Amino acid sequence: MKLNIQKKSIITKFSIYSAIIFILLGFVMNYALSAKIEDLTIQRAIITTANHAQQNAGNYLTSDFFSNSDYMKNKDTFEKYYQDVKTNEIVRIKIFDTNGNIIYSDIEDLVGQRFSDNKELNEALAGEIKVEIKRNLDKEENIFEKREYKALMEIYAPIKMGSETVGVVEVYHTLDDIETQVNDSTKLVTSFIFIGFAIIYILLNAWRQ
């Protein structure tokens, strides 16, 4: 009798410890997979958006557009380019020449301005696709964006004519759809993780008994 009580006590402790371990493992795996899902979703959005902006630039823009100091001369063509690039997720655009001057923006007051503290822009002018995710729009250049949005992803895509980078297009991508996709995927993964662990836990305890 005493032996049976001790056996039941051991099984009970084992069940409790197993449950705690499974729950902790579930949270750790969920956190790691959520971060991976978010990273993959963002990377896909960056590549798709940058390619979209670069390919459409070839349909509208030439190198002369980026060397003309009369920014308003090509406004109509820039507008057509923006309308072609714009999507539900792309809510703003800035186009820079090689000196970092804004030669076009859908916010006309920004045209002709230059922001010297933009690291991502300088790296994009060197030929790299760069991205900056802003959960807090506190830079001087984001004075207009922070009136409408809480967070944005800024994607800097170099515009090349041949092998030469003639300028950069910066597109502002909302994070709403990305966060929705990440949340939906995370919920699905979380469900599978905890259902899987629950099944293993039940089977393991059935075997122990």
Short description:
With 209 residues, the protein is of the alpha+beta class. It is built from five helices and five strands.
Can you offer a commentary on this structure?
With 209 residues, the protein is of the alpha+beta class. The protein has a domain at 59-179: Beta-Lactamase, CATH 3.30.450.20. It is 55% helix and 18% strand. The protein has helices at residues 2-60, 63-67, 75-85, 119-125, 176-208, and strands at residues 90-96, 102-105, 130-134, 152-161, 164-174. Helix 1 (2-60) packs antiparallel against helix 3 (75-85) and helix 1 (2-60) packs antiparallel against helix 5 (176-208). The longest helix is centred in the first third of the chain and has 59 residues, at 2-60. The chain is elongated. The mean pLDDT is 77.
Q: Radius of gyration in whole Å, from Cα?
A: 26 Å
User: What overall form do the CA principal axes indicate?
Assistant: elongated
Instruction: Name the beta content range.
Output: 15-25%
Main sheet strand line-up: 2-1-5-4-3
- Point out poorly predicted stretches: none
Helix percentage: 55-70%
Number of helices: 5
Structural class of the helices, strands and pairings?
alpha+beta
Q: What is the CATH homology-level superfamily of the domain at 59-179?
A: PAS domain
The biggest sheet amounts to: 5 strands, antiparallel
Q: Mean of residue pLDDT?
A: 77
Transmembrane segments: 12-33, 188-207
InterPro entries: Sensor-like_sf
Keywords: Kinase, Membrane, Transferase, Transmembrane, Transmembrane helix
Protein name: Sensory histidine kinase CreC
